[in-house]
């Protein structure tokens, strides 16, 4: 494997990307960050913004303060935003009830109908007891909802008794979590145009944070590249054999079951602001399984807007929910484009915050959209198959097989239990949730068989 040294920004970023046999061990941190970060970072230098508005009691609950069962905000004009969500103080509290929002399209005066925000109650999060979970920054949060360019908002949140506690004697309403706030996220401007070759670096001068995020992919694409190019199956196999045994031993190695590497749009390609995330990278030991999610952000986006959707989710995960970075390892849009998610290297076992209890030794893939009632496009399902065929293949995993993961704690499996799961699982297989939506979940069998076929099984 070849090494890489980045010195054009006045700092040294070591980027020795090693494939499965020499990847960082569990809990390891990659020392690829700049040693001298800027002392002061002005708000103007950070693209995008977040408005955080406290909710207040509505209707007859106005005199009850924080213990009310219905809170919200009446119609109001606000600064431009494109994504909404609700957060609260204690990440262990659950919001049982409904969250509805309507928005005004920027510059039109036209208000949308009421839209439902998914109250997914911490199933997308870092594992209990993990460093990320124990940071003191994490908040409870709903799923984010993409609403497009907007400058007005109205919201209502109503508490309801949890379904599993409902009985003839139980209250119909329940007090809401404390500290409810409406988060309005502006994704910021699109990155500058790329030119005709998207795999080329975006700019000759990168910030230290962007260089560090890019350097961990240095064996796959040039520093600052907007995309990691696709490889044929033969090229992918040759690279993997050489990485495991070196050129002198490659001829004697068995052909690995690995799919062709798909084209992956990098964090630099979708415009991630690397100053938002925590500076260090976190890793597991391996990748034994992939959990498929839907982002629950709705389906009203164009594929040309996917970068804006990702930047909005990223900001919501970090600034609003208190996570260390984007939660998922990868994202896929409705057109089948694949995006790098949490920083640390697309070929490495980066520790995500996607499936509470099962983040270790797994990866999370979020298909952008909501698929409880809408069917996922075939291009998106195929992209999941292509991505898993490559990434799982690097670690010797059979997409049609099953594996064991140890639970870190959740609402389906107690902490410490070894659970047998599909190598390609849906989020609901590890946690009691609707995610990834019944329509996407029903497509996972096809994704498994297609992924295995790409691997040559």
From TrEMBL:
InterPro entries on file: Amidase/PGRP_sf, Amidase_domain, PGRP, PGRP_domain_met/bac
Bias-annotated ranges (Basic and acidic residues): 119-135
Domain of life: Bacteria
Region (Disordered): 28-71, 118-153, 183-214
Transmembrane parts of this sequence: none
Keywords on record: Signal
UniProt signal peptide: 1-30
Residue intervals of the Peptidoglycan recognition protein family domain: 262-410
Domain N-acetylmuramoyl-L-alanine amidase, chain residue ranges per copy: 276-437
Protein family per UniProt: Belongs to the N-acetylmuramoyl-L-alanine amidase 2 family.
Annotated protein name in UniProt: N-acetylmuramoyl-L-alanine amidase
Lineage: Bacteria, Bacillati, Actinomycetota, Actinomycetes, Kitasatosporales
């Amino acid at each position: 494997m070849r090494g890489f040294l980045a010195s054009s920004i006045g700092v040294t970023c070591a980027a020795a990307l090693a494939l499965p046999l020499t990847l960082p061990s569990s809990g390891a941190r990659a020392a690829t960050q700049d040693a001298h970060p800027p002392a002061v970072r002005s708000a103007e230098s950070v693209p995008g913004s977040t408005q955080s508005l406290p909710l207040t009691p509505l209707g007859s609950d106005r005199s009850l303060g924080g213990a009310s069962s219905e809170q919200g905000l009446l119609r109001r004009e606000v600064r431009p935003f494109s994504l909404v969500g609700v957060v609260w103080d204690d990440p262990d509290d659950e919001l049982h009830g409904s969250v509805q929002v309507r928005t005004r399209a920027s510059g039109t005066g036209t208000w949308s109908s009421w839209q439902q925000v998914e109250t997914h109650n911490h199933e997308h999060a870092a594992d209990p007891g993990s460093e990320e979970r124990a940071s003191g920054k994490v908040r409870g949060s709903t799923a984010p909802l993409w609403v497009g360019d907007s400058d007005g908002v109205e919201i209502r949140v109503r508490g309801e008794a949890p379904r599993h506690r409902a009985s003839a004697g139980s209250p119909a309403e329940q007090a809401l979590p404390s500290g409810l706030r409406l988060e309005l996220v502006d994704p910021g401007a699109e990155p500058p145009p790329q030119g005709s070759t998207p795999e080329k670096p975006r700019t000759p001068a990168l910030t230290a944070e962007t260089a560090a995020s890019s350097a961990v992919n240095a064996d796959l694409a040039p520093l600052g590249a907007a995309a990691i190019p696709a490889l044929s199956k033969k090229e992918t196999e040759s690279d993997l054999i050489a990485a495991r045994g070196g050129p002198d031993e490659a001829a004697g190695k068995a052909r690995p079951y690995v799919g062709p590497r798909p084209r992956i749009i990098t964090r630099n390609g979708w415009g991630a602001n690397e100053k938002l995330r925590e500076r260090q990278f976190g890793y597991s030991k391996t990748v034994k399984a992939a959990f498929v999610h839907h982002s629950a952000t709705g389906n009203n986006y164009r594929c040309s807007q996917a970068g804006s959707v990702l930047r909005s989710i990223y900001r919501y995960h970090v600034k609003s929910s208190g996570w260390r970075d984007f939660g998922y390892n990868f994202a896929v849009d409705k057109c089948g484009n694949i995006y790098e998610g949490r920083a640390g290297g697309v070929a490495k076992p980066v520790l995500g915050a996607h499936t509470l209890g099962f983040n270790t030794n797994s990866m999370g893939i979020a298909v952008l959209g909501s698929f409880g009632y809408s069917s996922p496009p075939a291009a998106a399902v195929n992209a999941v198959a292509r991505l898993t065929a490559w990434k799982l293949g690097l670690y010797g995993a059979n997409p049609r097989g099953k594996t064991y993961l140890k639970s870190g704690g959740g609402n389906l499996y107690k902490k410490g239990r070894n659970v047998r799961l599909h190598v390609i699982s849906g989020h609901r297989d590890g946690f009691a949730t609707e995610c990834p939506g019944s329509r996407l979940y029903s497509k996972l069998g096809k994704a498994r068989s297609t992924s295995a076929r790409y691997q040559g099984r």
